[in-house]
Recover the amino acids of this structure.
DNA sequence: TGCTAAGTTCGACTCAACTCGTACTGCTGC
DNA sequence: GCAGCAGTACGAGTTGAGTCGAACTTAGCA
């Protein structure tokens, strides 16, 4: 379970090294809603993004370009924003780049097993 | 037509008593798609339906009216059809009534843990 | 035979989401 | 300063889902 309990500190905790840029606006752990998360994951492109983050990185943030998705930049912005606003990913601004990673602890705490399904997913079926 | 190709022993075919009406058209176990299932579950009303089926019945089929949903019949038809076509529920025609239940075994086989999240869901958050 | 009830089908409306081009912001290096 | 790049913001077009009323279908029953 996540590090903190009870008392609901409204915003997440995550013991991250100091000096990181602030995360962009996102819902707190207690604000995660199952229907919103499932809706965000019901898109194949977003499923691809989250799965790739889960399988090919764990404790590292990645830029939009890292995914090699063949879509216009404005489309990618749309999907990354949808993931962040649903509470699935966290984004930080590193200079010019905006890097993402999956909020594994938060999601496992609220919806245990969900990320396993995403990791096991394949675009084919 | 769950051809269940291949050597895999497929999933256990539920041992249903003979004489039941044929299920209405539905995807086979091997045709279940994560993004479709998640999309079907991203609606609060459908989440309510599935959760109620999971918690208040187990081996019993229920009619639309049993749920006590305050929506016109045409809306309910729409949602029940969406759940069936996504492979989440199975529907059978009993005379005048069309009864539904959750395909628990199929879903647990393909997406283990998913139904637990639905059962733990609450409309509030 | 004809009524009633459960549920479907159809069509129309609304609204949100996806897609994408274009213009813009803001950091970095020369 | 200024050019170049990562990514955003905005707006338009399109599609699909949710909502619902009204008409229809069908089983059971008196």
């Amino acid at each position: 379970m996540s590090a903190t309990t009870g008392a609901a500190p409204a915003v997440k905790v995550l013991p991250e090294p100091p000096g990181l840029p602030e995360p962009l606006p996102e819902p707190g752990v207690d604000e995660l809603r199952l229907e919103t998360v499932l809706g965000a994951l019901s898109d194949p492109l977003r499923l691809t993004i989250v799965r790739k983050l889960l399988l090919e990185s764990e404790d590292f943030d990645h830029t939009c370009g890292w995914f090699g998705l063949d879509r216009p930049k404005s489309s990618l912005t749309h999907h990354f924003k949808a993931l962040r606003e649903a509470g699935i990913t966290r984004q930080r601004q590193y200079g010019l780049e905006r890097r993402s990673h999956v909020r594994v602890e938060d999601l496992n705490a609220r919806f245990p097993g969900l990320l396993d399904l995403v990791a096991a997913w394949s675009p084919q079926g």
The CA atoms of residues 38 and 86 of chain B lie 9 Å apart. Chain B has one domain: 29-120.
